[in-house]
């Protein structure tokens, strides 16, 4: 037997008994038991190493070697200022800083009737009956040590509950900040989104921070019949940060999930998006772009389970890799025996701007039904010389020509965002990334 | 007065293979020169060498443009100095809006000439005025560069770019290829409209028919990487009658 895990001795894990009284839901016996069980599971499973098939391309070695402590104290002033300047200051917003809600920076006053938004700590005080099933189900997810760690150390994230038939138009803004300014810290936010029947909402999450921190968010999304959710993630983590996110989405009949991931930073990031489609006519779409430079590593892993007939899923990712950066795209689609008429589509295009950049793309289709449409594609290449020359031959300098072409390449992913304000926000971030490339 | 463009003993290779083998050509402002020749004679290579395409390397000789060594300039600098290549196969660029492309190019050239850059409104007004002459619509000008254009539309779009960028020397590479007679007339009108005492043109063509509509001052025959014959427009008519085969002995 080969060892399938990494040895890690994180100070925050040793401090479990000291910190658990400060974590959300401390008075709840069932939760304390769930935390203890999860900790035992982590001690058993540890972190996956590269011998584990799903982790072949993403090495957690550097993470395992960092002495992450439990988060302490408030975040720095500079970081607080950046949070203030993120997105629309008048938007409904919830700020989670170093694993705790920051009430001073949050503003949920304008929330329309039918939507309930609160930090996990509040939700566990007032709605533990609603959350118990969700939390115990996630705690029992047979995954890896990362999920177990989140279950053991679960901190503030956001809980959004949208009532049946409530259509929430304004975008809900959630900002996660990590501050490792006083030494590396580990954050385990837990989010729960419960979309009632025929409800609709739009969320934009921004992740940012300073110094060395490890964000390990776990998001549980349950979509009722006919529910519609747009969920956008802006990843602007610190250059030395680790970000390992897991989304677990379940969809009932006619539900529609539309996700977008814009990854612009972090030293090492993995975004796992797992969905189970349990009802007919449900659609699960997730698109995104990753723009990497230096020695950044970004991994997008999607796991889509078509368990009901007549459902559709789509993934469209555009990656831009410069310097010695590395991108990973793993897309797994399983179509169960009864999931006839499934329409699954997957595409990952990577633009390699440097000889040292690398992309590993692994599509994986498991199809047990016989009447399905499943397509996948992956490409990797450099900018087109003909296009570059055409632009230069019109007087456009080489750097500007490259910027135009990279921006055009990424646009195909951004076009999947069907809200103008949010698409514009991602466009601005892409432009800023490109400006730095030529700076 | 020195010519606008002076090519002397130009040798050039494409992917290491010598294609141009000693070209001599001088072009003065106001002149229209046609370069004709059989396939593989080096016509398109000449246009790419002048525009500065990667992989087209000058190994011997010189190209002097308005007193400066053209071969030392990046393609974008050549364009800003006044060289315009109308492509035989204009490139489709999905995702780059035509207006963004043309405005970026236009302002880059204005800036280089020390002129004020135009804002979006001024620019649109100018494009509208020029696009009408070439039967182009707002939609055609706005859509991603060359995407969804027919062969004729691509050539008209090249002419629109030329009209906007106002080059000193326009190199038209097989601009007539793939055009029906109506499109050919539209494109020829576009070229004729830009003839001026300050501007020179180098038309590269396989067939004589474009020259019925854009009458050249000089005609050169390129064969085997060299100019083997030069004359006035009657040379083009002779070639049309006799074919390039008559050059066989000279084109070694």
Helices and strands in order:
The complex is a heterodimer of chains A (439) and B (252).
Chain A: E1 5-6, H1 11-14, H2 16-19, H3 29-45, E2 47-48, H4 61-64, H5 77-84, E3 92-97, E4 100-101, E5 115-119, H6 120-126, H7 128-139, H8 145-153, E6 158-162, E7 172-187, E8 190-195, E9 200-215, E10 218-223, E11 228-236, E12 242-251, E13 256-263, E14 268-277, E15 283-292, E16 297-306, E17 312-321, E18 326-335, E19 343-352, E20 358-367, E21 373-381, H9 385-392, H10 398-414, H11 420-437
Parallel strand pairs in A: 3-7, 6-8, 7-9, 8-10, 9-11, 9-12, 10-12, 11-13, 12-14, 13-15, 14-16, 15-17, 16-18, 17-19, 18-20, 19-21
Antiparallel strand pairs in A: 1-2, 3-4, 5-6
Chain B: E1 5-14, E2 17-27, E3 32-36, H1 43-51, E4 56-65, E5 68-69, H2 75-81, E6 83-86, H3 98-112, H4 120-133, H5 138-142, H6 151-165, E7 169-173, H7 181-193, E8 200-205, H8 210-213, E9 218-223, E10 226-231, H9 233-242
Parallel strand pairs in B: 3-8, 3-9, 6-7, 7-8
Antiparallel strand pairs in B: 1-2, 1-4, 4-5, 9-10
Describe, in short, the structure shown:
The complex is a heterodimer of chains A (439) and B (252). By secondary structure, chain A is of the alpha/beta class. Chain A has a domain of 274 residues.
């Amino acid at each position: 037997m080969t060892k399938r895990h990494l040895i890690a001795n994180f100070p925050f894990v040793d401090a479990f008994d000291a910190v658990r009284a400060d974590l959300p839901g401390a008075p709840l016996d069932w939760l304390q038991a769930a935390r203890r069980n999860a900790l035992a599971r982590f001690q058993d499973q540890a972190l996956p190493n590269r011998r584990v098939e799903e982790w072949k391309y993403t090495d957690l070695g550097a993470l395992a070697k960092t002495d992450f402590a439990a988060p302490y104290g408030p975040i720095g002033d500079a970081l607080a200022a950046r949070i203030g300047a993120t997105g629309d200051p008048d938007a409904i917003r919830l700020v989670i800083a170093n694993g705790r809600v920051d009430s001073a920076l949050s503003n949920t006053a304008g929330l329309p009737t039918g939507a309930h938004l609160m930090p996990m700590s509040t939700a566990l005080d007032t709605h533990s009956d609603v959350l118990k099933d969700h939390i115990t189900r996630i705690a029992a997810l047979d995954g890896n040590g990362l999920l177990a760690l989140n279950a053991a150390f679960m901190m503030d994230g956001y809980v959004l509950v949208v009532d049946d038939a409530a259509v929430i138009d304004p975008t809900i803004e959630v900002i996660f900040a990590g501050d490792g300014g006083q030494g590396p810290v580990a954050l385990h936010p837990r989010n729960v989104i419960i979309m009632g029947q025929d409800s609709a909402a739009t969320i934009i999450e921004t992740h940012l921070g300073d110094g060395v921190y490890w964000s390990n968010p776990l998001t549980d999304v349950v979509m009722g019949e006919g529910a519609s959710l747009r969920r956008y993630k802006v990843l602007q983590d610190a250059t030395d940060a680790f970000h390992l996110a897991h989304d677990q989405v379940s969809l009932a009949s006619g539900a529609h999930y539309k996700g977008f991931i814009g990854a612009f930073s972090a030293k090492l990031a993995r975004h796992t998006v797992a969905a189970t489609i349990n009802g007919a006519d449900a659609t699960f779409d997730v698109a995104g772009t990753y723009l990497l430079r230096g020695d950044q590593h970004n991994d997008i892993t999607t796991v889509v389970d078509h368990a009901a007939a007549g459902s559709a899923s789509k993934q469209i990712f555009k990656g831009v890799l410069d310097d010695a950066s590395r991108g990973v795209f793993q897309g797994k689609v399983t179509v169960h025996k009864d999931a006839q008429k499934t329409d699954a589509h997957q595409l990952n295009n990577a633009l390699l701007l440097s000889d040292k950049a690398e992309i590993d793309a692994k599509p994986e289709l498991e199809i047990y039904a016989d009447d399905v449409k499943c397509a996948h594609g992956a490409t990797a290449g450099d900018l087109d010389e003909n296009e570059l020359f055409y632009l230069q031959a019109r007087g456009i300098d080489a750097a500007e020509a490259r910027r135009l072409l990279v921006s055009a390449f990424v646009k195909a992913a951004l076009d999947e965002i069907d809200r103008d304000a949010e698409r514009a926000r991602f466009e601005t971030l892409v432009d800023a990334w490109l400006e730095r490339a030529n700076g | 007065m020195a010519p606008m463009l002076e090519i002397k003993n130009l040798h050039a290779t494409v992917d290491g293979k010598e294609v141009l083998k000693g070209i001599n050509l001088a072009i003065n402002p106001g002149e229209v020169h046609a370069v004709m020749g059989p396939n593989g004679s080096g016509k398109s290579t000449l246009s790419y060498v002048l525009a500065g395409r990667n992989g087209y390397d000058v190994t011997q000789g010189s190209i002097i443009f308005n007193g400066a060594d053209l071969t030392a300039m990046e393609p974008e600098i050549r364009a800003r100095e006044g060289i315009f290549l109308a492509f035989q196969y204009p490139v489709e660029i999905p995702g780059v809006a035509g207006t963004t492309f043309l405005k970026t190019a236009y302002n880059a050239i204005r800036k280089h000439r020390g002129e004020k850059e135009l804002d979006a409104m001024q620019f649109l007004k100018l494009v509208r005025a020029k696009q009408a002459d070439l039967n182009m619509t707002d939609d055609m000008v706005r859509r991603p560069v060359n995407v969804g254009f027919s062969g004729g539309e691509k050539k008209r779009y090249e002419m629109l770019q030329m009209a906007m960028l106002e080059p000193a020397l326009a190199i038209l590479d097989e601009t007539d290829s793939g055009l029906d007679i109506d499109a050919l007339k539209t494109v020829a009108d576009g070229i004729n409209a830009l003839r001026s005492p300050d501007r020179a043109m180098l038309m590269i063509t396989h067939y004589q028919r474009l020259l019925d509509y854009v009458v050249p001052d000089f005609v050169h025959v390129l064969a085997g990487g060299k100019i083997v014959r030069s004359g006035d427009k009657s040379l083009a008519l002779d070639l049309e009658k006799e074919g390039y085969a008559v050059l066989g002995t000279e084109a070694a």
